[in-house]
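Morning, I've got a small favour to ask if you have a moment. I've been staring at a protein lately and its backbone has me curious. You're getting the sequence in one-letter code plus the fold written as tokens. I've dropped the whole record in just underneath, so have a look:
=====
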Amino acid sequence: MTFNLLGKVRIPMEVKELILQAEDIHKATELISSKLKKPVIIENKNFELIAYSSTFDDFDQTQQKTILSKKCPIFIIDRLKKEGIVTRLQKQSDPIRVHPMEDLGFQQRVVIAAKHLGHTLGYVWVQESEQTLNAEEMEFLEEITGHLGKLIYDQFMKENAKEGRKEELLWQLLHHEYASESQFRHDASLAQLKIPDRFSIVVFSVTAPQYKSMLDDLENTVNRFRTNRHLYYLKTEFQLILFIEGRESDRFSSRDIARDLIEVVKVETGEEDFYHFLIGVGKEYTKIYYMRKSFLEALEVIETANFIGPRPETMPREFSKLGLYRYLAALYEKNSSEDYYSEDLLTLIKNDTTKQTELLFTLESYLANNGKGKQTANELFIHPNTLNYRIKQIQELTNIDFSDFNMKAYLYTELLLLNNVDSYYERYKAALQK
């Protein structure tokens, strides 16, 4: 033991020196825990797990969840903010004792901010299960947290460099800018970039520049989603490009994970704002050579959606389900350049305009549902008898034969353009004036 001039017992210098000389934050965490004889967790400023002690494993429920999910539970962070703990950590450099929250499985603990270059980079949590920390131990925490802040900073810089290299390699994959697959795999191994055995590319794009701030919230959602899933992402000014890894022997698993993610984004974003995203899902592949192909497929979905301005949930988000939508732009160009119109559809537009009917929209829904009356009526929120009356009107006004598959396929593609592309509909309406 050593004593200062005031007679206070000091922590043995050799332990503190070992911590201050440590270059690895995990080793420093173990040293702190063994000295204080208590479980210790270190998190970054976003409350994401950096290190935890293995010497003492009697963590409470909250810390167990933090270790498993690699992040402090959101409801705990909200409570800490509500009680002013987070604000106090930003303003003061001495330890704060946080009282138990029995309803949340949160035992009493001491927390101190780890700062470096004047910025808070993380937090050191010491669980006080039975015996509280004494004044000397509190002072010990104050003396070492500056070094812990530096270790967090150093780790962040190393990880940032790794992430930068990973991003560079992922862009190379998307653009086929690598000399050979073996060389790429070698470089990926050095950068600790895991090459998936099964994957799909998903692209989120905002519908207009004023919504690009939504990508920040999307990025946060993706980071929470990938806590127990393996995926990478690249961010551009208006897009987020995700590399979804599927399960090795589970066909279409990356597609299923992509669907789950999209539903999570929809819930967290909200119904109205969600449709400010255009979303494309490329097909699933098992060879990295096809990474670019999946990417281009996702982009094609987005380009098609951007062209037709689809109504919510009508156009497929998956390239494999795009079907006739792939050819709408080509059909638009061909019919517009040749000044072509369907006489039957012109008749229905005229009737809808003059008599305020909805025959055109009814016909599209009827064809989309393969002529199933009950399903179509439910989709249109009308009685089956009302649907039957409208179909009878369509048959009386036009030469449409619902038993002719070729005619139905053609009409459906033309209706997709009419009901989704305003300029195409206006072209038809203008033809009525000729």
Q: What stands out?
A: Residues 15-160 form a domain with the Beta-Lactamase fold (CATH 3.30.450.40). The mean pLDDT is 89. The two ends are 102 Å apart (CA to CA). The chain has three domains: 15-160, 163-322, 328-433.
